[in-house]
Every structure is written in structure tokens, then in C-alpha cells.
């Protein structure tokens, strides 16, 4: 591994080892740096070169003082804006903010890196940091789904712009999980409506999953809930067609068995019937163009 990726990897390793080294009392190198900087603590930062300040920032990061590390990385960029060390400091500042779960500032630093150094070897990592700064927030309860859409967009950029980078594979996995998260949210709202007898509103949510998120893990349940909802409204053609789609693609699931039992209880079969959007889906299923 070359470039800043190697430095970042070493920094992560150092952070992981810091507590164990401290417990063992094996901090000889850190003690040297601490004594060195302690002896020059009164000197203004302007008297130090960019590499010295950068290494001091790395030391603070390894020592767990992320706020000071962020400040010092920023000072490298401020005092030596056109140096190689300023470029390194900027990507490390984004990394440090993310390590501290300060996602907004991590995004800002990563975006600034992309604006200043779009062709740099670490641009892929900056884009990845920007993406996961959104991704790492989407599971927080009550968060607006706009974060998930932004995560998807940023992850797609990594996948499409840097397909050969070491971050592409992780981005693909996270993209699929974020996509599944959106479907999960639609299901959650749909179940809420269904439980309270708001069948039309429930159908609208389950339809979104079937039409837009059919590759996620929620499709089988969405079809089953459609069977339930349509039967509750007395719309038997739609219920039968939803059951037919479910049986064609998810026959081995418990959701199909539950839907089959519901239909049989009304003297119905899971088969295509009538007209409408589900008939369109069913025709795609038969032609192998759905899922």
C-alpha cells in the first residue's frame, strides 16, 4: 500500500495499539516526542516547519487528543497552504473528524480535499470518507431519510469514479445496505398504516418496495402485506395477483405460505387476475425481467 493510504493505515494501527502500549508502559517513542514538544511549548507554531507540525498532529491523534490533532492538521494547511504536507494534513483532518464522529466537519474537509486535489491518489479515499460520513448516520433513530439518499449518491460516486480503488468493494456493500435501509423504512410505515386499518396508505408504501426496491430483502413481505391489504379492501383480483408473484419468486418463504392460507380461506388461488400495476409486474415476472 502506497501514498496516504499507507500513512492512514499506520495511524489506525497506532490508535488501536495506543491503549495497550500505555498499559504496558512502553511509550518510549511517545515520551521522546512529548519531551521534545514540551521543551518547545512556548515557541509559536510559525517557528516550526510543516513536517514538524504534521508529526506533532499525528502524535496527538495517536495519543487520543483528536481535537488537538485536528487543530494542528489545520495549522499545517494554514501556515503552509501549497506544501505537500498541507495536502496530507487535509486528508488526515477529514479522517480525524470522522474518528471523532464529527461527520459534518469530516465531510467539509473531505470535500475541500476533492475540490483542491481532484486528481490526487487520495481523492478516492476522500470521496469514501465523505460517503461514510453520511452512511454512519443513517441508522440513528429519527434521522431524516435524506441522509440515506445522500449516502447512496456519494457511495455511487466512489463505485463509478474509482471502480479499481480499494474502497469500491466496501462502497458496493454499503450501497446495498443503505438501499435496503430505505426499503425497511417504507415497510415500517406501511405496517403502521396496515395495523391501524389505513389500507390504501399501506398499499402505497408496499407498492414502493415492490416497484423500486424489489432487489432488497423486504420484497417478499411487501407482497404478502399487499395480499393482506387488498383482501381487507375486498379487492380480490389484486390480492390474487400479489400472491401469484409471491409464489413465483418466493414460494419457499413463510410469507408465501401465509398469503396462500389467506387466499384459500376466501376460496381464492394465487393467480394473476384483473388489470392494474400488479398485472404489469406479473408479466415482467413471467418474462424473467423482474428481480
From TrEMBL:
It is a lipid-anchor. Keywords: Cell outer membrane, Lipoprotein, Membrane, Palmitate, Signal. GO terms for cellular component: cell outer membrane. Pfam families: YfiO. One of its GO terms (biological process) is Gram-negative-bacterium-type cell outer membrane assembly. It is found in: Cell outer membrane. Residues 50-242 form the Outer membrane lipoprotein BamD-like domain. InterPro entries: BamD (IPR017689), BamD-like (IPR039565), TPR-like_helical_dom_sf (IPR011990). Belongs to the BamD family. Part of the Bam complex. Part of the outer membrane protein assembly complex, which is involved in assembly and insertion of beta-barrel proteins into the outer membrane. This is Outer membrane protein assembly factor BamD. It comes from Litoreibacter halocynthiae.
Amino acid at each position: 500500500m502506497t501514498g496516504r493510504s499507507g500513512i492512514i493505515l499506520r495511524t489506525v494501527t497506532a490508535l488501536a495499539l495506543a491503549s495497550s502500549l500505555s498499559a504496558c508502559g512502553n511509550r518510549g517513542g511517545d515520551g521522546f516526542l512529548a519531551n521534545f514538544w514540551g521543551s518547545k511549548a512556548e515557541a509559536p507554531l510559525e517557528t516550526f516547519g510543516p513536517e514538524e507540525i504534521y508529526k506533532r498532529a499525528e502524535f496527538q491523534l495517536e495519543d487520543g487528543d483528536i481535537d488537538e490533532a485536528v487543530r494542528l492538521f489545520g495549522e499545517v494547511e494554514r501556515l503552509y497552504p501549497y506544501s505537500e504536507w498541507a495536502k496530507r494534513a487535509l486528508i488526515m483532518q477529514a479522517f480525524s473528524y470522522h474518528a471523532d464522529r464529527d461527520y459534518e466537519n469530516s465531510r467539509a474537509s473531505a470535500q475541500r480535499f476533492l475540490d483542491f486535489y481532484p486528481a490526487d491518489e487520495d481523492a478516492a479515499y476522500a470521496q469514501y470518507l465523505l460517503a461514510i460520513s453520511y452512511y454512519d448516520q443513517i441508522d440513528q433513530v429519527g434521522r431524516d431519510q435524506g441522509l440515506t439518499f445522500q449516502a447512496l449518491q456519494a457511495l455511487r460516486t466512489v463505485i463509478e469514479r474509482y471502480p479499481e480503488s480499494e474502497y469500491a468493494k466496501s462502497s458496493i456493500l454499503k450501497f446495498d445496505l443503505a438501499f435496503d435501509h430505505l426499503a425497511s423504512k417504507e415497510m415500517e410505515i406501511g405496517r403502521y398504516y396496515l395495523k391501524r386499518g389505513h389500507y390504501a396508505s399501506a398499499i402505497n408504501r408496499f407498492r414502493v418496495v415492490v416497484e423500486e426496491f424489489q432487489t432488497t430483502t423486504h420484497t417478499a413481505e411487501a407482497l404478502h402485506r399487499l395480499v393482506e391489504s387488498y383482501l381487507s379492501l375486498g379487492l380480490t383480483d389484486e390480492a390474487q395477483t400479489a400472491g401469484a408473484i409471491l409464489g413465483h419468486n418466493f414460494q419457499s418463504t413463510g410469507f408465501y405460505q401465509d398469503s396462500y392460507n389467506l387466499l384459500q380461506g376466501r376460496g381464492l388461488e394465487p393467480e394473476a387476475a384483473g388489470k392494474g400495476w400488479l398485472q404489469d409486474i406479473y408479466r415482467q415476472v413471467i418474462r424473467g425481467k423482474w428481480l
